[in-house]
Amino acid sequence: MKTLKITSNNEAETLAFGKKLASFLKKGDTVVLTGELGSGKTKLTEGILTYYGLENEISSPTFTIVNEYIKDDINIFHFDVYRLEDSSEFYAIGGEEYFDNGICIIEWGEIIQDALPKDYIHIQFERNHIDENIRILNIISYGEKYDTLLNKLED
Q1: Is residue 12 situated within a structural domain?
Q2: Residue 63 has pLDDT above 90, yes or no
């Protein structure tokens, strides 16, 4: 496990960080996003999708649980599990079947903690109480391959 703390001063920086992160993601990768409402989870997802040229496609999956985006030969699955009671509902929709079939981005992933794959990236968003635009991104890697990815994100 490795940790990295990044300060984002505004939405543009969160978007840019999402694009940078996306440049290292591959099929089978999972990114879990946690933090209060309005803390930047969807903005980071928008950055990831922008890297793939899908910036005009993003919509919040709040009512559908998962949105699927396809670019060339990569599937990107954007989950918002906020409305799920627990991981049993995630399993009921076949959620675990997505993990090996593309890049999974899961907002509110703490709700389905026990359903997550063994290896993933967890990004916790914190608001700055002095400046409402600033976000602290606490990034934690689970699995050696993500330790390496965090090293790349530091550069």
Answers
A1: no
A2: no
